[in-house]
Automatic annotation (TrEMBL):
Pfam families: Zincin_1
InterPro entries per UniProt: Zincin_1, Zincin_1_sf
Name of the protein: Metallopeptidase family protein
């Protein structure tokens, strides 16, 4: 899947977030990158050679912690194209993986950790 189509799917995933949450994302940049940088992986203790990676990454101060106030920069969410494509069970599955990843990273912005997100999915 090319980058343009992938970005369209990310935009669609964002548009599916309820308006009451989108209003609170005004100072959050949502980006697409090919894959996580070595620095991003290192900061999270992920070794590329282990086969682990990231589908998306929230970087910032969660909304519960005051959000948007760190270092004068907006928070950011990055969705990583190559890992998402590798995770999907074929091209027809990419929209689902993208939408789940977008929701997951936005949940981090609202202060949810991995356990909170897993509980909310059930």
């Amino acid at each position: 899947m090319d980058s343009k189509r992938f970005k369209e799917l990310v935009a669609k995933g964002i548009s599916e977030i309820p308006a009451r949450f989108l209003e609170k994302l005004k100072n959050v940049a949502i980006l697409v990158a090919e894959e996580p940088s070595a620095e991003q992986l290192e900061n999270l203790g992920i070794k590329r050679e282990s086969g682990d990676t990231l589908l998306g990454l929230y970087e910032g101060v969660s909304n519960l912690e005051g959000g948007h106030t760190h270092r004068g920069f907006p928070d950011r969410i990055t969705i990583f194209r190559k890992p998402v494509l590798a995770e999907a069970a074929g091209e027809d599955d990419v929209p689902r993986v993208v939408a789940e990843t977008v929701r997951h990273e936005i949940a981090h912005h609202f202060g949810m950790d991995e356990e909170d997100i897993e509980r909310a999915r059930k």
